[in-house]
Specification:
The chain is mostly helical. The protein contains seven helices and no strands. The chain starts with a helix and ends with a helix.
Length: about 190
Amino acid sequence: LCGLFLKVPLTNTLGDSGMAYFNLAYAVYKWFYMISTAGLPVAMSVLISALEAEGRGRESGRVFRVSLCLFAAVGGIGTLLLWGLSSPFAALLGSPLSAACMRAISPTVFLICLSSAFRGYFQGKRQMLPTALSQVMEAAGKLFLGLAFAGLALSRGETLPVAAAYAVLGLTVGTALSVVYLLCHKTL
C-alpha cells in the first residue's frame, strides 16, 4: 500500500520528468537487487530451519554469520558497481541526468543484502514479525522520507534530477533504518 500511495503524491511533487529519473534509477536498482539476493535468503532460511529442527542451533548461528559475510560482500560489490557505473548506465539508457538518482540508490544494494541475511535468519527461526516490520519500515521510508526529501530539494531550488535523487534517497534511508531495526532485534 505504501508503494501504491507513493506514486501519486511523488508524481505531483516531481512531475513526469522527475518521475522518469526516479523510475529509471529504481529499475536499474531492481536489476542489481535481483542479482544480489536471488534465492539466497530462501536457501539460508531453509538451512537454518532444518538445523533448528535438528536441535543444532549453534550451527544455525554459524550459517547466519557466514551468510551475512557473503551477503555483505555481494552487496558491497553491487553498490560499488552501481555507484561507479551510474553515469555510463544513465547514458546507455538515454538519460544522463538520472545518474544522480542511481548514485543515491546505490547504497541500498548493500543495505538490502544485509537486510536479506537477517530476514533469512528470522524466517529460518520461524519469526516472521521482524521481517514484516522491516519491510514496512522500508516502504514507509520510501513513501514519507522520499516525499519529504523531494519537497525539501525543490523548496531549496534544486533541479528535477537532484530532487528525484533526494526522493530515491528515501528508500536508502528507510532501508538503513530497517537494517538497524533487524540488527537490534537480533541482538536482543
